[in-house]
Amino acid sequence: MLEFQNVVFQYDSEDFNIIDGLSFHIEKGEFVSVIGPSGCGKSTIFRLTNQLLSKKSGEILVDGEKIDGRRGYCGYMPQRDLLFPWRNVRDNLCLPMEIRGGIGRAEMIQRADETLAHVGLSGWGDKRPDELSGGMRQRAAFARTLLTGSELLLLDEPFSALDFLTRINMQEWLLDQWESDHKTVLFITHDVEEAIFLSSRVLVVEEMPIRRLVSFEVPAPYPRTRACLTDPEMLALREQLIDLLRREVSA
Amino acid sequence: MKKNANLPALLFLFALLILWQAGAMGMNAAYILPSPTQILVRMWELRGPLLTAHLPATLLCTGIGLAISIVLGLLLAVWMDASPVAEKMLYPLIVASQTIPTTALAPLFVLWFGYTIWSKVLVTVLITFFPIAITVFDGFRSASTDMIDMLKTFGAGKRDIFLKLKLPAALPYFFSAIKMAIPLSIIGAAIGEWLGAQAGLGYFSRRMMTQLDGAGVFAPIVLLSVVAMLAVAIVSWVEKKVITWRGSL
């Protein structure tokens, strides 16, 4: 679904390659988390994938094709919900469809309302974003990402600004969504527990500059409940990942 | 609650007016310092020429000047936003031009355009055009880069980003610019009329001065202030209807 081949990237302001010959592969339908300490370049991987940044060399492929010059192959959900305050919730959801074009207003509204119902916000379409709670706003932002129509979703620490209870509710909610949609999800977080609970596979940024990502399979079947986090194997993985990250920070 | 919040200011204003009234009555020199009540009386006596001849002349001048400024200011702001070259070329000049005392140039315009309305319109445009352009341009710039990036990932081009994000983001700035420009445009028109005109509240005020009619000088000024306040109040009302999201960005 998503493949990096020897990708190199350098920020103009820096004199070294922050991403240096990185290759990795994500299968269709996987839920993969990328973890690493803040500032390690996780988000750079995202911004290369959605072409907000352009690579120095190497290839990025989505669905086996190079992304260069392509549009609409991935849906990006930023850390903040970025709902436009001058649009009601429904019109915010229409944004990606308006930009892609090709469908009429009536169909846009119908799809937006269907997606609102799908994320558990039916009846909230006419509200202004500031009338929604933090968790609801993230759900609306997720619905907007779904309406890009892309099979590959890039979620950039979407729950990091939420309070603890809302966050764990949203994690369970996201798993439900993923199990019903069969999208491929690439999820950035710095929360090890969140990564383990959600993902089928965890990729760890082990060094800076990023030359490779270390892959860990998560030993728990879906559907999951939070109880699985206390399985001995899961606890062992958690300790292993924390150790790895800690060594990196102190190095 | 809101009424209470304004109460101290209103009481203070009332106290100042009383002080003025007492001082003017004590001085008893209406040709220099008329009292507030004398001004009101004079306004009533002069209501005919003030409202039918001179107010419309000033409003016409203000209206034309403001309309030209808004169109020019918006065009310039859009151009600077769309083209980095235009921004680099114009923005520093516009900011620097703010230091030119435009009103001091007004006699020159009277020289060029004579006593026609256009000398007054030009003063008005020069005073109001720059703040409108700068404020609206800053409004376009206020659009968050995160939101721009998000639209780009949806496949948005420059035009989509402008229409769907920058334009609505700049709307509160646009209203601020208009509210700032209204009093400025009235000042511009009045100054132009002072220097050379056949009608208008500025011209009327000057004529009263030559006749040593203190209250007559104040009467058109009070009228101008009331008009400016009314216009700003109307724009504020429209703004409240249009912009329901101010502060939630």
How would you sum up this structure, described in words?
The complex is a heterodimer of chains A (251) and B (249). Chain A has 251 residues and is of the alpha/beta class. Chain A has a single domain, classed as P-loop containing nucleotide triphosphate hydrolases (Rossmann fold). In chain A, the strands form 2 sheets. Chain A has a 6-stranded mixed beta sheet, with helices on both faces. In chain A, strand 7, helix 5 and strand 8 form a beta-alpha-beta unit. The longest helix of chain A is centred in the C-terminal third of the chain and has 19 residues. With 249 residues, chain B is an all-alpha fold. Chain B has a single domain, classed as MetI-like (MetI-like fold), CATH 1.10.3720. Chain B contains 10 helices and no strands. In chain B, helix 9 runs antiparallel to helix 10. At the A-B interface, strand 6 and helix 2 of A face helix 7 and helix 8 of B.
Report the β-strand fraction of chain A as a percent range.
15-25%
Write the CATH fold name of chain A. Rossmann fold
CATH class of chain B: Mainly Alpha
Extract low-pLDDT stretches of chain B: none
| Strand order in the sheet with the most strands of chain A | 6-7-8-3-9-10
In short:
The complex is a heterodimer of chains A (251) and B (249). Chain A is α/β, with parallel strands linked by helices.
Properties at a glance:
heterodimer; A: 251 residues; alpha/beta; Rossmann fold; 6-stranded mixed beta sheet; 4-stranded antiparallel beta sheet; 7 helices; B: 249 residues; mainly alpha; 0% strand
SSE layout and pairing:
The complex is a heterodimer of chains A (about 250) and B (about 250).
Chain A: E1 2-9, E2 19-26, E3 31-35, H1 42-49, E4 57-62, E5 65-66, E6 74-77, H2 89-100, H3 105-118, H4 134-146, E7 152-156, H5 164-181, E8 184-189, H6 192-198, E9 201-205, E10 213-217, H7 232-250
Helix pairs in contact in A: 2-3, 2-4, 3-4
Chain B: H1 2-27, H2 36-45, H3 47-82, H4 84-97, H5 102-113, H6 117-141, H7 145-153, H8 158-195, H9 201-210, H10 214-242
